Amino acid sequence: MKVVACLARTLLLLFLTTFLSKAHGASASPSPIHGNIVSRWSSRRSLPTVIQTSASTSASASTNASRRSNVTTQEKSKPPLLSLLSADVLSAFISSALLSPLVTIIDKSVTLSAAGSMTLGSALKKNALTLISNPMKFVTSPEYVWICGLYSATYIAANTITTYCTLTSRPSSSPKLIGTTLVNIYACVSKDAAFAKMFGSCAPHSVPKRSLALFSLRDGGTIFSSFLLPQKLAAVFEVMGINHIQSLNVAQLTCPVVFQAVSAPIHLLGLDFYNRSPGELMGKTRMAASVDNYFPVVGARMLRVLPAFGIGGIGNRMLRAEMIKRIEGGL
């Protein structure tokens, strides 16, 4: 029994010694099979990380490629500057050429009436008959060229400033107001000075600074009521439930027309300072003379500004938008 027990203890000790020896040897120098198993297990554990890293790299590359593609597409699809400027100029000239006959008739008639050469009604009738009987003579006359050039310059300034601000992603309200005001005041004051010399009651002479200042004040207000105020009024109409296009059109027609109630006496006073020098009349007498023609002139100037900055402004905006749409559609 003791022998059996001793043999059992010997076998157990031998087994434990052999097992521990193999375990130590395996940890010190793993067999190829063990190394393969460990390698596969490690690779399986790291596989999600590899896949995630690969996917992240692929997504980043795809995003960068997409961005480069978008930039390239935008650069290719951007309309050429020359084409946009051509649309700006052409829409401005067409709008001006169409509205200039009526504006020419009214401006010439108001100037003749302020000079006392004839009544406003007679002058309107005479100039309208000239347009009907001899349109070629009318559209080649100096007064028509002045009017057409005036509004072409104003619309070109407004359109090109809008294009520049759009391309550079800048707000256009302030630059448009400043640019169109400067261009319109210079062109309109020059036109009024030329009209005063052509149709005034006295021999042509230099235009007084007072007249130039009054004409500038009148035109600054007209520009504000024609290009900036309609957008603010249109926003009010939209709040009332009117859609954007209708709101903008109604505001574009309303603002410059209503402003003529303010600008008409300024215009008449400027003409009066040209026709009668500052030292000839007292202030009250001069104002009374301007007030006498107030209502007829306000009515005439409302008719004048309706095509000039109302219908003409809408026509210029719609023509320009359609031309730019066609340019972009052809890319």
Automatic annotation (TrEMBL):
The keyword Signal applies. Residues 1-28 form the signal peptide. The keyword Oxidoreductase does not apply. The lineage of its organism: Eukaryota, Sar, Stramenopiles, Ochrophyta, Bolidophyceae. InterPro entries: C365.16-ike. This is Sequence orphan. It comes from Triparma strigata. Keywords: Signal. Residues 53-74 are annotated as: Disordered. Residues 53-70 have a biased composition (Low complexity). One of its GO terms (cellular component) is mitochondrion.
